[in-house]
Write a sequence for this structure.
């Protein structure tokens, strides 16, 4: 019987979604007027629609809006419409597919870790063609925990049959969720931020690196010795 040395784990990258892999077109405040127009409601109803939705961004919340204005649609139907709307105004940040492909070709394993509604975040990934470009997706709603809680980072790794190591990485644009979460989890981080980066509050950890965009971050990761 031979004792083979253990196979080294592939490098693991956890990566944020919004403003890191994708951006959204248009003004989010345009949703309520568009909702009113689509359902033959007067324009002045938009304020009520917006206020009710801000209080409950869910199928239940949209069901309340539907009941308030006597729309002939269930909350589930209106929510489906909303998911389609949100996915429809999502586009890839240039160079992201190529960056993810280069990382995977170099042996990296990639998991998206994102805060939000599971159906919306997954619809964005599907619309932009990113689902097959990553190995796992972990959305806070289905995880039951949000960044910066380390539990969501550990859960993302567990979905890949992995445990996090200090040599693993988190890439994201939000210091409060992505950087604080990576620091609390004990992994390294790249902060996606304009150059020069704005100063962070003293309570925030210093990222391992900064990069102006995800393709630059990927080039940096590929250049680092492991
Ligand atoms: Mg983000």
């Amino acid at each position: 019987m031979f004792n083979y040395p253990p196979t080294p784990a592939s490098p693991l990258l956890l990566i944020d979604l919004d403003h890191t892999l994708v951006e959204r077109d248009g003004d989010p405040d345009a949703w309520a007027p568009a909702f009113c127009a689509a359902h033959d409601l007067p324009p002045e109803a938009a304020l009520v629609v917006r206020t009710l939705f801000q209080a409950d961004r869910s199928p239940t919340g949209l069901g309340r809006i539907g009941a308030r204005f006597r729309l002939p649609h269930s909350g589930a139907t209106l929510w489906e419409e909303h998911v389609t709307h949100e996915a429809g105004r999502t586009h890839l940040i240039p160079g992201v597919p190529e960056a993810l492909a280069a990382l995977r070709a170099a042996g990296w394993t990639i998991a998206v870790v994102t805060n939000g509604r599971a159906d919306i975040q997954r619809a964005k990934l599907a619309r932009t063609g990113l689902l097959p470009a990553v190995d796992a997706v972990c959305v806070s709603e289905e995880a039951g925990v949000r960044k910066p809680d380390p539990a969501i980072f550990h859960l993302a790794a567990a979905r890949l049959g992995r445990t996090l190591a200090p040599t693993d990485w988190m890439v994201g644009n939000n210091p409060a969720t992505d950087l604080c979460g990576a620091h609390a989890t004990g992994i390294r981080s790249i902060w996606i931020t304009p150059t020069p980066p704005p100063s962070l509050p003293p309570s925030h950890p210093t990222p391992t690196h900064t990069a102006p965009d995800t393709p630059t971050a990927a080039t940096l990761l590929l250049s680092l010795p492991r």
Remarks:
- The beta strands are 12-15, 22-24, 90-92, 109-114, 136-139, 169-172, 188-192, 209-211.
- The pocket of magnesium ion is lined by residues 16, 18-20, 172-174 (CB under 6 Å).
- The chain has two domains: 12-23+91-223, 28-88.
- Residues 60 and 155 are 28 Å apart (CA to CA).
